[in-house]
Amino acid sequence: MLLGSPLTPLEHTARHALNFLHYNVGLPWAWSIVGLTVIVRMLLVPLTVRQIHSMQNLQRFAPQMKEIQKKYKSDRAKQNEELMKFYRENNINPAASCLPMLFQLPVFIALYYALKNFSKHPPGGNLAFLHFIPSIAAHTTTHWGGYVLLVVYVASQMASTLYMSATMDKTQRYLFMFMPLVFVFVIARFPAGLVLYWVTTNLWTVGQGLITRRLIPKTAAPVIQRRSSRTPAQEPKLEEPAPASTVAAPKQPGQVRKVRRKKRAGGRR
Fold it and tell me: How far apart are CA 133 and CA 222, in angstroms?
């Protein structure tokens, strides 16, 4: 009760939004959750654009940041100081990539409590979804359709992670790709409507990634010239002289040109 009291306004907001989509728009309860997800993601479009630009900047300046980390690997405090300085100089905001996820978290919690109230006081109308999930307020694994929804969740979460982890190294990417297989055991105990919300937002992320890859051009990474202390400095290249056969030799002062005459037949030399 103590935990739920500060979240009561969020629960009421989610409940009013679902009621509006169900009673005023005429959507079933399950499709009202899909509609709510689409509305939330549309409101987060400006933050998503900032997220995309932030990820592009991180990908563009990744070589320089790796050089800073390598240079100050023995001094973490100095490394963080230099990285923050580099972020300010190049107008990079690493936290911008997490903003859409942070703003979706209250919606996720509010929807959880709204569906929990659905299980105690079922509203009017059918709570089924696509004829294979009997109730969006019940646990996902109470019916065979819930397992299908969990498979779709894992696939959509992996696909969305693949599109949103372009700036990560391979180890981090594989870790985030493996995380849905671990969290599926936790997600299975959530209401099916909550899993439906997360599947919808994952599919939105995949579609968003496909569109942005076509519309937003990739930023070219700056060229970094690496030269060690043992590598000598390159001297400017001189133009190679033209072949001797194509250039006439200059005449030196005081030099007399000798002309060799041909012998005449039967005559004097």
Answer: 51
